[in-house]
Design a protein that fits this description.
alpha/beta, D-Maltodextrin-Binding Protein, domain 2, 41% helix, five-stranded mixed beta sheet
Amino acid sequence: MNKKTLLLATLLIIASTALTACGAADQPIQVGTDATWPPFEFVDEETKELVGFDIDLMAAVAERAGIEYEFVNAGFDPVLAGVAECQYDAAISAITITSDRMENMSFTQPYFAAGQLVTVAIDNDTITGHEDLAGYTVGAQIGTTGAIEVEAIEGAELKTYDDIGLAFQDLMNGQIDAIVADNSLALGYIAQNSDELKAVGDTFTAEEFGIAVCPENAELLATLDAALGELIEEGYVDGLVAEWLAVIE
């Protein structure tokens, strides 16, 4: 191979590499979510589109960051596993920031403070808070901090659900005794079924939600975190609270 041919081949390789890199950069990031957790993420029954607090927040963060994205709707456990293994670039799904999760994935700064709350049937006068759950069957969504809290209560029997809505149906049908879930979600279901459900006790944990990010992508983490911080500072997140969580104000 002469020098001209070698130079041409080298230039072609460089050009090809640059085009490939640009193409990869133009690809939308994959964002995992479990759309069974109103008012944060759920499927609109009429439009069949994903809606909710987190859905609006991710749209605003991506727009501010100049990033194209697409949602992947999956179960909560697969969403967590997917972002930990970098199958998804990020995930937003009312994900509580915990030390255990931080060992497997990265998180932006928190954007919402929540806590676990106990829900029971309206005529249940025996369970008055989480301290009374021993000896009862308690529902929670699999993989959530609610399920973790129930497991930590000695004598309580945990029943897990892929869809938290099914847990509330079972509670109203008398098939379980209580549910432990985020206060925002629990109070939303109670508001829709106030003749059948009630909250008991106070929130008994202090939690914060963040956007989870593939642990191998520090650049994406920094970009999302900066955009989120600007939106928090400007009051956009407070606006989402007023829009989606008015029921718990």
